[in-house]
Amino acid sequence: MDIKVRYYPLLNSSSCPPAVGQHDKDRIMIRFIHISDTHIGPSKDFELQGVNTYNPFQKVLEGIQSLPFQPDFIIHTGDIAADPDRQSYSLFASMVKDIHIPFYYVTGNHDESAMIKSELQIGEKEDLMTDNLVYRFEVSRRRFLVLDGRGPREIDPHGTISDEQFDIIDKELSKDQPLSIFIHFPLLPIDCSWVDRDMLLFEGDRLHDLFAAHAEKINGVFFGHLHRGTTVIKDGVRYSSVASTCLQFGLLPGQDQPTFEDHKRGYFNIVTIEDGKMVVKEQSVKIGKEI
Fold first, then answer.
1. Which CATH architecture has domain 2-286?
2. 47 phi and psi angles, rounded to 5 deg
3. Pairing of strands 135-139, 142-146
4. Boundaries of every domain in the chain
5. Strands 218-223 and 237-241
6. Chain center to CA of 67
7. How confident is residue 118, by pLDDT bands cut at 50, 70 and 90?
8. Which tens digit of pLDDT belongs to each residue from 51-94?
């Protein structure tokens, strides 16, 4: 596997509570896996832009299982399915059923929250809304919040956050313990014309302002949608995306239209959070045929 490392000092490490890891009682850290944009279809031979999505995700799962440590959990930040149908979610569920690591999910613009809830097993959590997939969970006394930015089809591929979710976020950020946040959509421009025009969360600036007001309490904001690993740091808030497991976007400055790139590699991130720092390691596995 290939590896790239991004290291971020946390703004206020003294605000981080001591945590007891599941693997070592003296360890004050957690490690989780960040994946996104698997776009699984209704059958194993489904293709997205000419690229099969089933086999790459299978290779990524094998890469995760071969790691020399047990992750605390796996978070999928959306676009689980290529289109929201029960066959696709059922196929995804069959792929992860023997992975004995808690899975958590975020609703992407290609997903439906109700189907995720009914078709996939989610780790222990506390639901904060009924219709949307908005919930919180804790691991080793560290807090995590999942947001649902999926809007009506007419705004796709943009996302949107309701006032009710803003109230929930504000309440969660009013607590003393640090928080890590998951959402599918990028909040801020990334210096790529077509993304900045077509792909952002409509309320991104407003949500960022709320995050910035509590930056010392936020470990990081993790997202997908871009089919590419990116890092944005603004006003002390760290945003981190992960590349797709199957197919990547071109994100060059000034690029006016989307392009797809078949890297013959599938990606996932290893995220380590401990007192004083956050480390994001990009991992990739070969998904093309051996020649």
1. 4-Layer Sandwich (3.60)
2. -125, 145
3. antiparallel
4. 2-286
5. parallel
6. 19
7. very high
8. 999 999 999 999 999 999 999 999 999 999 999 999 999 999 99
